[in-house]
């Protein structure tokens, strides 16, 4: 997941991560369309990116300089961010929804999917759904996800402060909300309104408050999900600076894939995979796999 726990991180790296999040927000213009075209044009296979827990796919803008320009890139984004609407009740519904959007954008396969963190779990579920419908998935690329989402980020009511803190951190703000805060939502709004120019300041309250609601639902959906098995080629990016070994991560996916997994190790923390140096390695590997004969 995007925030797998609080750890001591180098100040410079953490600052770069927050700065990039703010830049992504500004570059995306706050667009919350169900399918956000990050790069149009090109005659190569398109890449569809599944969102991390926050529900928006702006983070994948970091991939564009490192992915060959002939590949269009589309970001899938969660319901409930753009306007109030019912949220998916489970991963099957979410995967059907995203598969429908992909098919509208690109009527014919093969389809190529990428997801970082919880986006990797969602991308796997979308691949399952597309294959169930009889469509070819040319590539499923998973960036450091594991099949079962940890319960580090709880959806319990008494953890609303953590969800609000998560919102701040994911959008490049200082996470300052504490467990004993009497009104985490009010504190979230206060922090955002006090920092004009960081991206969320111009959002109406209704849209800001949709963020913890969507994240809470995405967490619940992911934690309940039990993935099936896909037949397509799978490329796995493993962050090597965390506590889990690459071998244990690959082993966790063994029963959910039908062929050997190609693996690329990336020397970084999980949450820093889309910073310039790690994402350059990811983009190069994706380019090579997208160019390979199917």
Brief summary of the model shown:
The protein has 294 residues and is α/β, with parallel strands linked by helices.
How many helices? The count is 8
Q: How would you spell out the order of helices and strands?
A: HEEEHEHEHHHEHEH
> What is the top-level CATH class?
Alpha Beta
Shape: globular
What do we call the CATH homologous superfamily?
Alpha/Beta hydrolase fold, catalytic domain
Domain Thioesterase TesA-like: 48-290
Protein name: Thioesterase TesA-like domain-containing protein
Topology:
Layout: H1 11-28, E1 35-39, E2 47-50, E3 73-76, H2 91-105, E4 111-116, H3 118-132, E5 137-143, H4 160-170, H5 184-193, H6 205-224, E6 234-239, H7 246-253, E7 262-266, H8 276-291
Parallel strand pairs: 2-3, 2-4, 4-5, 5-6, 6-7
Antiparallel strand pairs: 1-3
Helix pairs in contact: 2-3, 4-5, 4-6
Question: What labels would you give this structure?
Answer:
294 residues, alpha/beta, Rossmann fold, 7-stranded mixed beta sheet, Thioesterase
What do you see in this structure?
It is a single chain. With 294 residues, the chain is α/β, with parallel strands linked by helices. The chain has a single domain, classed as Alpha/Beta hydrolase fold, catalytic domain (Rossmann fold), CATH 3.40.50. 38% of the residues lie in helices and 13% in strands. The protein is built from eight helices and seven strands, in the order αβββαβαβαααβαβα. It has a seven-stranded mixed beta sheet with strand order 1-3-2-4-5-6-7, sandwiched between helices. α3 (118-132) links the parallel β4 (111-116) and β5. α2 crosses α3, α4 packs parallel to α5 (184-193) and α4 (160-170) packs across α6. It is globular. The two termini are 30 Å apart.
